[in-house]
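Archive entry. Fields below.
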Amino acid sequence: MALIEENPWSRRKEFLALNPAGTLPILLAEGDVPIVGATVIAEYLDETRGVLKRDRRLFAENPMDRAEIRRLVDWYLGKTESEVTRHLVRERALKPLMPDAAGGGSPDSTAIRAARANIRQHLKYTNWLAGTRHWLAGSRLTYADLAAAAAFSVLDYLGEIDWRDNAAARDWYMRVKSRPSFRPLLADRVRGLAPVSHYADLDF
Amino acid sequence: MALIEENPWSRRKEFLALNPAGTLPILLAEGDVPIVGATVIAEYLDETRGVLKRDRRLFAENPMDRAEIRRLVDWYLGKTESEVTRHLVRERALKPLMPDAAGGGSPDSTAIRAARANIRQHLKYTNWLAGTRHWLAGSRLTYADLAAAAAFSVLDYLGEIDWRDNAAARDWYMRVKSRPSFRPLLADRVRGLAPVSHYADLDF
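PREDICTED_STRUCTURE:
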């Protein structure tokens, strides 16, 4: 599988043909059929690959456990994204890369302040989940952990997370960071924006 | 199954215990376990009931067809909701019912205007889907049709939809409205807000 970089704000015709919503991510599956959106891709990969993975599967067997995993994926990719991550990424990481006509320019400090005020609640909830369940949806690593780690690694890169009073969340994130599948992601860099110094440290 | 009305803006303690995100809908499943969120509920109902329904199932067998259904459900419950429905419902239907402290009061005409400007695109896309596919995700009725019909019935209630130049979408919505499962919904009313005159007509 190869990674293709796309700037959704350019609204390329070929890109909109794959997904008229103009959003990422898109998986080009068998026959280059576009599978659109993170949760849709996760379900597709589980149905076509995950069911064969047994105890390494990122989803559960039981419908109620599956509902809990999906609820948490929606929490981190929906609620955390719209209350926190999207705003900080747009203002701090994307605007410097975007042309003015596409919405680039100076960061909006009001949006940054509002997003920062919301982080604490999301971190506290994650701390509670990690403290009661080991992995966020239960005793095994699932898509819920990957969704949460995606949000937190972006926020941590930007130096927006104060881990000090959230030992269970910190311990959970350290376990995610230590996994062979996650470690290469920690080497990714945003052009022109260095990560916080502890970003790639497994013990932070 | 019984329907329990909940005002999420009241943020009742018992309600937040069921869903700390404070959002609707919630299904109280076997043992009163809360299943949270429209898409999570749909997946749960399909896994526990739908698989037995054969040709009356609202989901597909094939992973790629399932991905297309999920993409469209996310379109209508995510994109249409955040670009159109949420704003018109909040400004026109909920604000008159909400206390000022919870965000009630006079409608914001800028928000209404922005939402109205976006409707046309969603209607046009639906018209294209209905014109090429009969039902929105293919040859059979699926969750994609229910998600779209949920958005459009709310907008139609509010008189926000101009069906005239979108014959295929209109014909599709007429077929949805005619179904025995959908017709009782057309009798629902928002307190203090009458629907547009053609709202419950099967031929409009």
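CURATOR_NOTE: The two ends of chain A are 31 Å apart (CA to CA).
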